[in-house]
Amino acid sequence: MTQGIKTVLHTVSDLDAAKRLYTALLGVQPSMDTTYYVGFEAGAQHIGLMPAKDGIAAPVTYWEVPDIAARIAEVTAGGASVREEPHDVGGGRLIATVLDADGTVLGLLQDTTVL
Hints:
- The two termini are 16 Å apart.
- This protein has one domain (5-114): 2,3-Dihydroxybiphenyl 1,2-Dioxygenase, domain 1 (Roll), CATH 3.10.180.10.
- By secondary structure, the chain is an alpha+beta fold.
- The protein has helices at residues 15-26, 68-77; strands at 5-12, 32-33, 38-42, 45-51, 60-64, 81-90, 93-99, 105-111.
- It is globular.
- The protein contains two helices and eight strands, in the order E-H-E-E-E-E-H-E-E-E.
């Protein structure tokens, strides 16, 4: 079982311009602001902005799971293929992405600070 969609990442062509727009939209300053990632905490949702790369041109939703390795095993048994192996992105978060049968990118996120 997941804890639901907690994170949505948007790929953008201009990180600075997107940061200004999302700051205005969400009404909060970024909680993380680097040259490769800008993140916002808006209610119970994390909204992230990252430069477009690897052909991802749409938002990617990240489903929060208690055990990322176990969930990858389950979804690959269910027909998904691993696109991006689990890796640490800082702040106690592990992320990975898989592709469904139609090529849709699905994100998985494990918050290791709540073990």
